[in-house]
Design brief:
Elements lengths: L2 H17 L21 H16 L6 H16 L4 H9 L5 H11 L5 H11 L2 H4 L5 H13 L8 H6 L14 H14 L11 H20 L3 H11 L8 H11 L24 H35 L8
Helix pairs in contact: 1-3, 1-14, 2-3, 2-5, 2-14, 4-6, 5-8, 8-10, 10-12, 11-12, 11-13, 12-13, 12-14
């Protein structure tokens, strides 16, 4: 597979997302006492985060950039331009998910001063500081505080120490839950691929060694959603990207994308007789766009670096 073909996967994925944007819209249950966050705020927050990443890694003149800007604007309007976060703050003062969703918008310059003031007040309390969370979720909250301009209530490095990934576990202990945990640890550490140098060297070396067999396992099992997340991790590590691993893995994943651009979370194209339901494919389709754009960005950086090195050497190459 070529980089141009990887870009085609990203374009098709965002085309599907645009055509199904109503599925991300907040309904009346978004502020309901017993509303399901996983079908309201979570999809909207993931849409916002992916659009922020696509904007970061594409040129303003790129149609992908324009589409991401349009979708991000749609998502921001769904929140009442940030006003609904204040309502969530009032209803659930110590819930962290509103801040985690808001942080994606804030990182793009879309901010609501009233919500930030209210959240900053809560974030100073002992109750907020001692909320029990999974270690990778703690990293998410700390990164969300940073992105939103709220003083971090803890240290990222210390939070990292308690994660599965930081323990450099035996590679055969990798399974779905561990896979999703490690991908999000890297996403929060690197601010969703923006800062690869934030990954400590021992963890980066461990991942470079084991990502290939883990990706192979997930692709073999048609775990497309996790495969995309692992591809994003492979594109968020310090140092030159592993071009062959990335392009070969994308070639194996590409048949999972149907003609509409949708990518199911699991299962191959040949096993489907109807289009997957929104909730069964929205996340994996978003992750396809996210991972593909990260891949293209890192491959582009590597190519530009090689060209610059060649020019500095007078075009003659480095003597062997």
């Amino acid at each position: 597979m070529t980089a141009h073909e990887v870009r085609g996967l990203a374009e098709a994925a965002l085309t599907w997302v645009s055509a199904h944007r109503d599925g991300f819209a907040l309904g009346d249950d978004a502020l309901a006492e017993h509303g399901n966050v996983n079908t309201t705020w979570k999809p909207l927050g993931e849409l916002a985060q992916v659009c922020v990443c696509v904007r970061r890694h594409t040129d303003p003149a790129d149609p992908l950039h324009a589409r991401a800007c349009d979708l991000l604007s749609f998502a921001w309007q769904q929140t009442g331009r940030g006003a609904l976060f204040g309502e969530l703050q009032r209803l659930e003062p110590f819930a962290t998910y509103p801040l985690e969703v808001y942080a994606a918008f804030a990182s793009a310059g879309l901010r609501h001063a009233g919500y930030e003031r209210a959240t900053a007040t809560v974030a100073r309390t002992r109750g907020w500081h001692v909320t029990e969370q999974e270690p990778n979720r703690r990293l998410s909250v700390l990164n969300s505080e940073r992105r939103s301009g709220i003083p971090q209530h803890g240290d990222m490095a210390r939070a990292l120490e308690h994660t599965w990934l930081a323990g450099l576990p035996e590679p055969w202990t990798f399974e779905l839950a561990a896979g999703y945990t490690l991908t999000h640890v890297i996403f929060h550490l690197t601010d969703w691929g923006l800062n690869p140098q934030a990954v400590p060297q021992p963890i980066a070396a461990y991942l470079r060694h084991w990502l290939a067999p883990w990706l192979d396992t997930c692709l073999e099992d048609e775990q497309w959603d996790l495969s995309c997340e692992l591809l994003a991790v492979a594109s968020a590590l310090p140092g030159p990207p592993e071009r062959d691993l990335l392009l070969e893995s994308w070639a194996r994943l590409s048949p999972a994308q149907d003609d509409s651009g949708a990518v199911p979370e699991v299962g191959g194209r040949g096993s489907r007789t109807t289009a997957p339901a929104f909730l069964d494919c929205y996340h994996s389709t978003l992750m396809t766009a996210f991972a593909a754009v990260l891949t293209l960005g890192r491959l582009g950086e590597a190519a530009a670096g090689a060209t610059a090195a060649d020019m500095a050497d007078g075009g003659q190459g480095v003597p062997g």
